Amino acid sequence: MIVLAMLAVLFLCLILRLGYIQMIQAPWLTEQAEDLWRRNIPVEPKRGQITDRNGEVLAYNGSAPTVVVIPAQVKDKEGTAAKLAPVLEMTKEKVQQQISKRALMVYLAPGGRKVTDEKAKQVRDLNLTGIYVTEEGKRYYPEDGLASHILGFAGVDNQGLTGVESWYNSRLQGKPGRISFFANARGEEMPKEDDEYVAPQNGQNLTLTIDSEIQTFVEREIENVVAQYNPDGVMAIVADPKTGEILSLANYPSFKNGSYRSYPQETYNRDLAIWKNFEPGSTFKIVTLAAALEEKKITLQDPFYDPGYYTVGGRNIRCWKAGGHGQETMLDVVENSCNPGFMLMGQKLGKEKLFDYIDKFGFGQKTGIDLPGEGKGILFNVNKVTPVDLATTSFGQGVSVTPIQQVMAVSAVANGGTLMKPHLAKEWRDPETNQVIEEVKPEAVRRVVSEDTARQVRETLESVVARGSGKNAYLEGYRVGGKTGTAQVAENGAYKSGHYIVSFIGMAPVDNPRLVAYIAIDNPKAPLIFGGVIAAPVVGNILGDSLHYLNVPTSKEGLAKEYNYFDVKPVEVPLIAGMSVQDAQKEMLGAGLQLKTETTGTGKYIVDQSPAAGTKVPPGSTVRLYLSDQQAPTEQKKQ
């Protein structure tokens, strides 16, 4: 009886277990079995395209069909090879060799993995067992080389490797689809089982904040700098200070996205504009000035005497100008980029307060820009800062920062005192409908200084461009503010003789800044190495072209440029519309200008002119004439 009871319990347990497996575990076991039987042929999604803010395509995917073979499913290999060879323009022997490989899947194509649409259709029409046609994509960059460090590139497996291609890879890549079939352990297709096609989900389309036209202006200026000064490197950024949008970012050396393998790895792996750490020099003085004004440690009218040095901790730290600037105001200190004056500001602030503002302006930390490889700079530990460290930090020596940090710090001054987070993604669009599915909003990090302090700093920087060391960035019709920088490069704990990074950062228009532009030039080969001589005119050109392109109206307000004895002063174009060509010729010669011989229209009267009357241009400039047989009204306003 005991044995019988034990057997009954055992059989009951077996019956319960069998019922559990049959009724409860059956779906899961079936799924596991199907996974063991299932073979998948991947179908790539179409990678999302990348455009600039105006819709110009910068990167897109071109898809191409690919013929895939499952060798185990091909029973008649010789017959299959005979049918495929003429379609694929391959020899029968080569095709038979490929489809006879001991592999789960083989790509079949005469020159790689992709075939034409026509050949793909012919292969499908053959309806051969074990032969499948799928899609693969290839990345194209129509403006190959433009904004290369921003875009980066994608590899052959649809994987973003650098730039925004890498940063936003998961959204650009999409989700792959598949062609599924059931096969036994030998790879042979199981009978009475249907194939399954799961369509891929294409990647989202990305609209960037950059403007291709402004990017072109910047890259053109970099090319000119390289041709003229043969530097080791160049970094340039243009930003919208109110939103943190990056309108342009470029470096030298650069590369072409479509052929990145032809360049050294460090060229495409290092985005100097966000990665490189170096002493900023005098551009950093903007931070010291803003902090001193905000804390009311100085006013711009305070007097200061510069003997050519400033004594700190028993050590004389010299001004860049031998003999010093003598008696001046704090406004003059900024215009002249006088190091002793800034050391005084730093001393009045104290190390805790100065480094607190350095931190608020975003130095010593990543800005959070949506690009891989950003650096964060190197600052002193405030607890270990000596009086000499405080003095040198005040004028931008002894600390290391990145170009993007400087741009965002000055953007905070330009927009009224708020530090913004920089960003390159403007919006995301659905790949099928092209409708906006997400818009990237401007993100404020913190308020750094008051609007009044920001206004004072902007106006002071305008004075630097009109009357001080930044004159070469001056633009007629636009109020430009900016600061020069010339910093010696430190290597292995010591400054390297003759190796400088010159820079300039500017904004315009000063009363309502639309743009902040920055350029740094590493080791330019020139007899006179100063940021005001080499970098300032470059930023002036970038701002001038960009403001005209954006249709920012000109203004006659602001400070007039102060000319030195050797400076070439511009002349004002007189009003000649309404005159005869002969009278206009006399008027132009009297103004030191020339009449352009190419004219528009016919007739003996001038009805319009370019540049317009009232425009200031260099002496010897030409004026284009628009002619007509009818005389224009004499009372024509200057534009």
TrEMBL record:
NCBIfam families: spoVD_pbp. SMART domains: PASTA. This is Stage V sporulation protein D. Residues 567-629 form the PASTA domain. Its main location: membrane. It holds the Pfam family PASTA. PANTHER family: PEPTIDOGLYCAN D,D-TRANSPEPTIDASE, PEPTIDOGLYCAN D,D-TRANSPEPTIDASE FTSI. It comes from the Bacteria. Gene3D superfamilies: 3.30.10.20, 3.30.450.330, DD-peptidase/beta-lactamase superfamily, Penicillin-binding protein 2a (Domain 2). It comes from Tumebacillus amylolyticus. Belongs to the transpeptidase family.
